[in-house]
Design a protein that fits this description.
The protein has 134 residues and is mainly alpha-helical. The chain has a single domain (21-124), classed as Arc Repressor Mutant, subunit A (Orthogonal Bundle), CATH 1.10.10.10. Helix content is 51%, strand content 10%. It contains 5 helices and 3 strands, in the order ααβααββα. It has a 3-stranded antiparallel β-sheet with strand order 1-3-2.
Length: 134
């Protein structure tokens, strides 16, 4: 279950692992795709299993053309796939890219937790000296 862009080459931060430019582009595409509430709702719907286009579009009070655009963006980001089954096209979620995003975020969470732990060693119990702002 390797992933997070199939591992190592541009350091995200000191001490972190390196990431390829292709991986960064994939992460960017996925983050842009999940930035919109309609696309997040579509992902949530498809998490329950594959669905036909009209079933995906039904909950949204918008033109079918707008839903198509959302689906195309999700597909380009690698978050969904379309599969022809007989005369119907089924749309299904591809979770790999979301796992890559989660892995990337986990690295930054670890990084910041370590930094905050170091900070806490210098200022236990929140005894941070405050200077007045001028």
């Amino acid at each position: 279950m390797e992933s997070y862009c199939d591992r190592p080459t541009v350091p995200p931060f000191r001490g972190g692992r390196t990431v390829t430019k292709k991986c960064l582009a994939q992460l960017t595409d996925a983050l842009i795709a999940i930035s919109h509430p309609t696309r997040r709702a579509i992902i949530g719907q498809l998490a329950n299993g594959p669905a036909r286009f009209l079933d995906v579009a039904k909950p949204f009070d918008t033109a079918l053309n707008a839903v198509t655009k959302h689906l195309k963006l999700l597909e380009r980001a690698g978050l969904i796939e379309r599969r022809k089954q007989g005369r119907e096209v089924l749309i299904s979620l591809r979770g790999e890219r979301l796992r890559e995003v989660a892995g990337w975020m986990h690295e930054y969470e670890r990084f910041w937790n370590e930094r905050l732990d170091q900070f806490e060693q210098y200022y236990p119990q929140g005894d941070v000296p405050l200077r007045p702002l001028h």
